[in-house]
Amino acid sequence: MTFYTAGNIIPALSRRDDIEEVMRDWESRYSTYITTSIFITTFNVNGRMPTHEDLPNWLTCDGASAPDFYVIGLQEMDLSPQAFLMNTSARHSGWQIVIQKSLPTSANYILVQEAHLVGILLMIYRRIDCEVRVENTAIDVEIVPTGFPLLGRMGNKGGVAISLQINDSYLCFVNSHFAAGQEELEKRNQDYREISQVRFPKSNKSLFDHDVIFWFGDMNFRLETNSNLSNDDFRRLCYDENAFRDMIVFDQLKKQKKLNHIFVDFKEPDILNFRPTYKYDPGTTRWDTSDKCRCPAWCDRILWWNRDGVNVRQKVYESVESVVFSDHKPVRSIFYVEVRHVDEAKRSACLEEAVREADRRANEALPQIELSQSEVDFGKVYFFQSASRTITIKNTGKTKISFSFDARPNRVALCEPWLSVTPPNSRLQPGASCTISLQILIDKAVAWTINGDEKLSEILVLRLHRGRHYFVTVSAYYQYSAFGSSFVNLIHMEKRKTSASELNLTYSPASLISAVVAGVPESVFRISEALKQNGLEKICFDDPSAHSEFIALRNALDTGKPKNLFEACKSAFSMYDTFLTLITSFKESIIPPALQMECLRAASDINSCWSCVEKFPVENRNMFIYFIGFVSELVKWNSTANSQMQLIADIIFKRPTGDGGCLQRLKFLETCVSGSREVSKNAPSISIHYQHDADLIVL
After folding, report:
1. What GO molecular functions are on record for this protein (predicted)?
2. Which listed residue, of 10, 103, 555, 556, carries a Cα 20 to 30 Å from 427's Cα?
3. Which helix (DSSP H) or strand (DSSP E) does residue 42 occupy?
4. Cis before residue 267, ω within 30 degrees of 0?
5. Cβ 359 vs Cβ 166: under 8 Å
6. Does residue 45 register a pLDDT over 80?
7. Is the same domain home to 316 and 404?
8. pLDDT tens-digit series, residues 565-604
């Protein structure tokens, strides 16, 4: 909140922070407080659409009066292909109807705001007769997909956030779904750090510019099994509430939070007094009996953060075991939050005195801090593999301090796009410390700006309000990868391998081996041939893709070891997903932008399509012909491959799903896949380069 206006006092920009800090300290002089009740629940619904009869007592707590607000977060609301491709859902409105019917005295609640990202849905309801107001013009929404979305295919992980002004306090609600899998711990940490960078478009507020943050969802943190406690041991302990204290020490979220890797300064009870919420056989309260036999885990959580001086009290934190239609149990909590109401007349009176107080404080002892380190070297970093480090800031002075990481002169952004800082600002009492998390993540947009192995460096500016500036130097060495590179450069740079035996493959299209190895990047050839060797019919497009398997495959493709890619990754779908990620990550589109409109106009005629392809640069032409050959095989052998055609069409044009022309792109792809090059009189030849670019051979 800004405490001065053009009509009264306009202090110099350098003094604004000082005055605002004084006004925050004096908040009780010009504010009155009222307690509002907020019911928050999170539920992974496993793609199912229930009736309100399937949700007994979900939105009511014994002995609790009707809350002022209901905040409802769902995950996996919709797992249909359309939801993934278009970020639209037919179930969206259906869930609103079910929830409205499930609310106690539902006619007394109105929907304040909703936001969704694929299967992640966040809805906030307000009781009509509650004593607090919501400032409608200040409502702000943002979505953050995480992972490596393939163009328009959003994926079902990420977060949605809603910022509300309740009276004169600012509250933020975040519903998130982190990466699944026992081994995906670092990816979950990465998801947290990506979402924590959210900035709301209307207000430009960050998460930590709010008075209170409520963060909830299916965070997917698991219990770590070891030689002392097995899956069976945990299952037995789940029936003894007294054993939860022993179990929680193996909880990944608690351990990562204690290490200050995630959720620094967020709060949650030390001991959870409800059974793990995952994984159950749907329709029962029985632990998972499927072949995977998942270990129980507290995947579904509700945490909160509040700035100094804001009173937040948690009354209830529990699961709802009577709801059985999903493989998760809902978790719910009731909070009581003091929100402020500002008396404008009293505030104006305080403001004049606050200016004098700010001057007085500025003349007192200067704020002092101690940095744990001013140089942070990440060492080697890799494509789409996050790396994190922490630094500690300690207030060693006698006065409260405020600090922020600021953009360097002549720059808008706080830092380079490959680096993130969490939190970007904070306040510390004398003697208190704060842990700052630094994360490096090289995505395709960053990789396109890097040439080969390259040193990355950045200088962070830490501004101490009413004090000096500190500088933190961050460095790392990016390790060049086929991912995020130029396929044209790869074709010219890579040493060609023309022997199937070198690739440890027993199957390959005999007439094309030499052309493929020379005409497309080796990484493209290796992964596509491995998929065909393994059997394209084994790809199940509904399977999840593990980030750890992506990393293993990326390493195998970049280093050449192991030669058999299925030694690095056992999942056919993870390999297929990595293949599409590779194609998507290339700097160029397979179909050159200058010829895309011509291709769309030719989409209905096979000869016209191949006439367009003939005009492609040789590298694009070879990539297109090879990739279309792979897609033809995929459609031939996999009966459900047609579900992938729109996504693949958007990938070869490098255009997001859902924009204009998506149907014509699909038509062009289908025509090229269904039509035979041999029967098309205009079908182009495959041009290949052997060891020297000048030696052009046409097959």
Report:
1. phosphatidylinositol-4,5-bisphosphate 5-phosphatase activity
2. 10
3. strand 31-44
4. no
5. no
6. yes
7. no
8. 999 999 999 999 999 999 999 999 999 999 999 999 999 9
User: Is residue 601 domain-resident?
Assistant: yes
* Closest C-alpha to 104, from 61, 74, 51: 61
Whether 87 and 164 map to the same domain: the answer is yes
Predicted local confidence at residue 88, as pLDDT: 55
Closest CA to 120 of 148, 153, 155, 85: 155
Number of domains in the chain: 3
Residue 4 lies in a domain: no
Longest CA–CA span in the chain (Å) reads: 87
190 token code pair:
């990465």
Q: Which helix (H) or strand (E) holds 304?
A: strand 300-306
Q: How confident is the model at residue 683 (pLDDT cuts 50, 70, 90)?
A: low
Domain span including residue 182? 13-280+290-342
For residue 618, pLDDT beyond 50: yes
- Residues 336, 391, single domain; the answer is no
Question: Two tokens at 691?
Answer: 């060891």
Residue 113 bridge partners (DSSP)? 124
Residues 467-478: tens digit of each pLDDT: 899 999 999 999
489 falls within a domain: no
Q: Where are the alpha helices (DSSP H) in 250-343?
A: 252-258
| 460 and 515 assigned to the same domain | no
Output the domain CATH number for residue 581.
Answer: 1.10.555.10
Residues 689 and 622 in one domain: yes
Classify residue 490: in a domain, yes or no. Answer: no
User: Around 544, how many Cα atoms within 13 Å sit in the side-chain half-sphere?
Assistant: 13
β-strands 169-177, 212-218 pairing: parallel
426 and 537, same domain (yes or no): no
Can you name the residues that pair with 109 across neighbouring β-strands? 127
Count the Cβ atoms, other than its own, within 10 Å of residue 630.
22
